[in-house]
Design brief:
Elements (H helix, E strand, L loop, with lengths): L19 E6 L6 H14 L4 E5 L7 H4 L17 E3 L2 E5 H4 L10 H13 L8 E5 L6 H9 L4 E6 L3 H16 L4 E12 L6 E2 L6 H9 L3 E7 L1 H9 L9 H14 L1
Parallel strand pairs: 1-5, 1-6, 2-4, 2-5, 6-7, 7-9
Antiparallel strand pairs: 3-4, 7-8
Bound molecules: adenosine-5'-diphosphate.
The site of adenosine-5'-diphosphate has 17 residues, from helix 1, strand 7, strand 9 and helix 8.
Length: 259
């Protein structure tokens, strides 16, 4: 009952949520969470109702990046009221867990936690719910893409070849799960010297662009390395809230996705 002829469960929508956008990466540390929080605030600045769900169970970094670490309220003990920061509704497994507790969870527990974050949080009416996925391919990706109607996925990669090979695994996993990959984002591309303006391609140049072309997929943005990106993330005020060159890149990315 309620199953596709293939035996796959019928993917669910979340009441009031128009789109679910998954942000993935092949490995950790490429800036997936930074991109997710900046994209969320950039979309909110353009008038969209945005939710951000930190599903990176192994290293939830969104509470710090969004400047929030208080637990959410649950007046009836069932539904959770999402937190709100910089105009974005926000929830993270990180605010539910005791601080500094390493998470070693089995697949079924992960599935339960993710389903609770999607179903039991009172997201209300949203144009988009951005889901910051754990790196790699695993139970969270499987659960999200199998049980929920994910509108599309974006894969973040750094320019290094190794990272791109990892990213390819994430791309293949999304396509096997039937989730459309909307495009790639290259993060930590060139470093522009604030003193002289020279651009240094610390991790190489053009790798992600070439890969995107090969796959026939759009390269949605190239985001340079910048000290301000890191500092603003650490301070809980994503750089996309401001108006410097990187905020402009995020603004254009948001506009392109909103189109
Ligand atoms: P992931 O979610 O892929 O593990 P994070 O978003 O946590 O990666 O980023 C890892 C670190 O790199 C963080 O300290 C973050 O501030 C920093 N970082 C991410 N993108 C950039 C960038 N474009 N320039 C400088 N630092 C960045």
């Amino acid at each position: 009952i309620g199953r596709h002829p293939t035996g796959k469960p019928e993917p669910k929508t979340i009441p009031g949520v128009k789109r679910i956008l998954a942000i993935g990466s092949g490995k950790g540390g490429v800036g997936k969470s930074t991109v997710s929080s900046n994209l969320a605030v950039a979309m909110a600045r353009q008038g969209w109702k945005v939710g951000l769900l930190d599903a990176d169970i192994y290293g939830p970094s969104q509470p710090r990046m969004m400047g929030l670490d208080r637990p959410p309220m649950s007046p009836d003990g069932k539904q959770i009221i999402p937190l709100e920061s910089h105009g974005v509704k926000f929830m993270s497994i990180g605010v539910l867990l005791p601080k500094d507790e390493a998470v070693i969870w089995r697949g079924p527990m992960l599935m339960g936690a993710l389903q609770q974050l999607l179903n039991d949080v009172r997201w209300g009416s949203l144009d988009v719910l951005i889901v910051d996925m754990p790196p790699g391919t695993g139970d969270i990706q499987l659960t999200l893409c199998t049980y929920f109607d994910v509108t599309g996925a974006i894969v973040v990669s750094t320019p290094q070849d190794v990272a791109m090979l990892d990213a390819q695994k994430a791309l293949v996993a999304f396509s096997k799960l039937g989730t459309e990959v909307i495009g790639l984002i290259e993060n930590m591309s060139g470093y522009i010297c604030p003193e002289c303006g020279h651009e240094a391609h610390i991790f190489g140049q053009g790798g992600v662009r070439a890969e995107a072309a090969k796959l026939g997929m759009p390269l949605l943005a190239e985001i340079p390395i910048s000290l301000d990106v890191r500092l603003s993330g650490d301070e809980g005020r994503p750089i996309a809230l401001g108006d410097d060159a990187i905020a402009v890149i995020y603004g254009k990315l948001a506009a392109r996705l909103i189109e």
